Amino acid sequence: MGLRIELEVENPNEPPAVDVHYEWTQFALWMSGKYGYGNLAGHEIGLSPELVQALCDWGDRADAVFPADDPASFELSDDFLQEGYELARRVRAELPAEWVVTTWNPASRSTVEVALDD
């Protein structure tokens, strides 16, 4: 894969990692590890434009209904969470094996590492 990452290596002894989850008005990708910490759209780590757009659209849909005046009342639907899991599987498929990809799995109701063959 001709993945081109133009980020500075901050933690050379750690694997690069990204977590896929929703937070109001933020991108869906949360990076840690080798390239440091940050909230990303996805193009910074070489994801396809189609996947970056899908991740942005996913977050935008939740942002559109997020009750900023009462955030504690907000619950993400099972369908939304399942879509996030499927997006994480796509992220896993586009990144090299060295990357660790995690997300919320609505079936197990826990954060999981997305396997390469998932």
Task: Please outline what is shown here.
Helix content is 29%, strand content 19%. It has 118 residues and is an alpha+beta fold.
List keywords for this structure.
single chain; alpha+beta; 5 strands; 29% helix; 118 residues; globular; five-stranded mixed sheet; 2 helices
Describe the structure.
This protein has one domain (16-109). The chain has a 5-stranded mixed beta sheet with strand order 3-2-1-4-5. The chain is globular. It is built from 2 helices and 5 strands; from the N terminus they run βββααββ. Helix 1 (49-65) packs antiparallel against helix 2 (78-94). With 118 residues, it is α+β, with helices and mostly antiparallel strands. The protein has helices spanning 49-65, 78-94; strands at 16-20, 29-33, 38-40, 100-105, 110-113. The protein starts with 15 loop residues before the first strand and ends in a 5-residue tail after the last strand.
What's the story with the biggest beta sheet? 5 strands, mixed
Question: What is the C-alpha radius of gyration, as a whole number of Å?
Answer: 14 Å
**Strand segment tally:** 5
End-to-end Cα distance, whole Å, is: 19 Å
Strand residues, percent: 15-25%
Instruction: Quickly count the helices.
Output: 2
- SSE pattern, N- to C-terminal: EEEHHEE
Low-confidence parts lasting 5 or more residues at pLDDT below 50? none
Shape: globular
Please state how the strands of the largest beta sheet are arranged side by side: 3-2-1-4-5
- Give the tally of structural domains: 1
Helix amount: 25-40%
Overall pLDDT metric:
90
Question: Structural class per helix/strand content?
Answer: alpha+beta
